[in-house]
Amino acid sequence: MVSMPTLPLVGATPGHICPFDQACSYLEAAAKELSLDQGILEILSHPRRVVTVSIPVKLDNGDIRVLAGHRVQHSDILGPYKGGTRYHPAVTVNEVSALAMLMTWKCALLGIPYGGAKGGIAIDPQNYSVSELERITRRYTSELIKDIGPALDIPAPDVGTSAREMAWMMDTYSMNVGHAVPGVVTGKPLSVGGSRGREMATGRGVMIIVREALADLGKSLDGVRVVIQGFGNVGGAAAELLYQAGAKIIAVSTAEGGIFANDGLDIPALKAYAAENHKSIVGFPQSEPIKNAELLTLSCDVLIPAALENQITEENVDQIQAQIVAEAANGPVTLEANRVLEARGVTVLPDILANAGGVVVSYLEWVQGLSYLFWDEERVNREMEHLMVQAYRQVMQQSKMRQVPLRLAAYTLGVGRVAQALSDRGLYP
Ligand SMILES: NC(=O)C1=CN([C@@H]2O[C@H](COP(=O)(O)OP(=O)(O)OC[C@H]3O[C@@H](n4cnc5c(N)ncnc54)[C@H](O)[C@@H]3O)[C@@H](O)[C@H]2O)C=CC1
Ligand SMILES: O=C(O)CCC(=O)C(=O)O
C-alpha cells in the first residue's frame, strides 16, 4: 500500500466513491502485476503539481463571483502534460487528480510523447451567458499562464468545453506572451490551427475499438445493438459513426433523460433534432422516453457510457446485460462493478484505450501545428486508426500473455512504459 498524497486532494466526500482512490487502486494492481519497485510506485501515485486558482468574474448583472479553477499535472516523464478542461458542477481537485493520472497512462499506452494532466472549474456552463463563459475562460487561462504552454502543458476540451473555449484559451495565452501560440491548446477551431477530424476523434476511436473487439468475437458492427449514455462530443460522435457502420443505436441519453427505439434510432435525424432544441433529445419522434437508470440496464450487445464517472456501480452492475462495455467516458465503471463484470466474462474496454482517439488526434493537431503543415481529414483519421488498432492489439496480446483482464493489461502497458522512462531518466532518487 502506498502512502496517500499529501497534496490537498479536497472534495472526496466520506461514503462516496473517491475517484483518486480508485485511480490509485488500478495503479497499485498494475504495479503488483509488474513487480514494480515500491519507490517508483510511490512517485507515480502522487500528482507532480496541483494548481488551484481563484477566478473573479463580473457577471452580466454586475455582481462579482469568485470561482475556483484547478489544473492537476500528474506526470511529465514522457513529455509535456496533456489533458482536457472540464466545466461541470461536480469538479473537485480529487476528481481532476484522478483524471490527470488516467491521462498519463492513456498517452503512454497509445505511444504518444505526453504526460498527463486535467483541469476544471466547478460550474454548470448552462447557468452562464456566452460572454460570462468567455470572461471565466480568459481569467482561468491568465491565472495559469506560467503553468501551461506548448512544451509544458497543453489543455484540450472535456465535459462542458469545446473548440470555442480552446480558441479563447489560445487567444488569451497568445496575448500574454505577445505572439500567436496555437500549440498551447488542442481541439481548437480549424481557423486558428485546429486539426481536421478532432471533433469526431474520440467517438471515432470508440467506434474503432468496439469494431475490433466485435471482430475478435467473430462479429461485425452491422446490426449490433448499441446503447449510449451521453450525447455530447463523445457520445454523439460515437453514435453517428456506429450508425454509419450499420449498428442499431437503440437508446441514447443526456443529463435530461433518455430515449429508446427498439428498431434503432435515426441518428442523423436525432442530431438535427438536438441541434434545433438546444442539445435536448427529449421528445424525439419515433422514440419513447426512458429513465437514465433504466437505459444502462437495457438488453444490448454493446453498452457505451459516454457521460461521467461512476455510472455502473455495485448498485446496478448485476442488471447490466451488455456483452461489451466500452468506456467512452473516463471512469464510468467503479472498481467494484468492474470486478463483477470481469468475473461474469463481460468484455470491458477500458477508458484509457477506448476513449484515446481524442488525445491521439490532439497529438496529431499539435504535430501539424509545430510543423506548420496541415493534413486532410483522411490522413488524420488514418494515422489515428493506426495508433488505436496498434494499442488495441498490444492490450489483447498483453491480456493473453499475462492472463489478466483488458483493463489490467492496458494499465500494465501504460504504467510499465512510464516506470521504465522514469527509471531511465534517473528521476528516481
Ligand atoms: N471531449 C473529448 O475529446 C474527450 C472526452 N472524454 C470523456 O468523455 C466523457 C464525455 O465527454 P464529452 O462528450 O466531451 O462531454 P460533453 O459535455 O460534450 O457531453 C456530455 C454528455 O453527457 C450527458 N450527461 C451528463 N450527465 C448524464 C447522466 N447522468 N446521464 C446521461 N447523460 C448525462 C450530457 O447531457 C451530455 O450529453 C467524459 O468522461 C470525458 O472525460 C474522454 C476523452 C476525450
Ligand atoms: O485531447 C486531449 O488532449 C485530452 C482529452 C482528454 O481529456 C481525455 O482523453 O480524457
From TrEMBL:
<dbReference type="InterPro" id="IPR036291">
    <property type="entry name" value="NAD(P)-bd_dom_sf"/>
</dbReference>
<dbReference type="Pfam" id="PF00208">
    <property type="entry name" value="ELFV_dehydrog"/>
</dbReference>
<dbReference type="InterPro" id="IPR006096">
    <property type="entry name" value="Glu/Leu/Phe/Val/Trp_DH_C"/>
</dbReference>
<dbReference type="InterPro" id="IPR014362">
    <property type="entry name" value="Glu_DH"/>
</dbReference>
<protein>
    <recommendedName>
        <fullName>Glutamate dehydrogenase</fullName>
    </recommendedName>
</protein>
<dbReference type="Pfam" id="PF02812">
    <property type="entry name" value="ELFV_dehydrog_N"/>
</dbReference>
<dbReference type="InterPro" id="IPR006095">
    <property type="entry name" value="Glu/Leu/Phe/Val/Trp_DH"/>
</dbReference>
<dbReference type="InterPro" id="IPR033524">
    <property type="entry name" value="Glu/Leu/Phe/Val_DH_AS"/>
</dbReference>
<comment type="similarity">
    <text>Belongs to the Glu/Leu/Phe/Val dehydrogenases family.</text>
</comment>
<keyword id="KW-0560">Oxidoreductase</keyword>
<dbReference type="InterPro" id="IPR006097">
    <property type="entry name" value="Glu/Leu/Phe/Val/Trp_DH_dimer"/>
</dbReference>
<dbReference type="InterPro" id="IPR033922">
    <property type="entry name" value="NAD_bind_Glu_DH"/>
</dbReference>
<feature type="domain" description="Glutamate/phenylalanine/leucine/valine/L-tryptophan dehydrogenase C-terminal">
    <location>
        <begin position="195"/>
        <end position="426"/>
    </location>
</feature>
<dbReference type="InterPro" id="IPR046346">
    <property type="entry name" value="Aminoacid_DH-like_N_sf"/>
</dbReference>
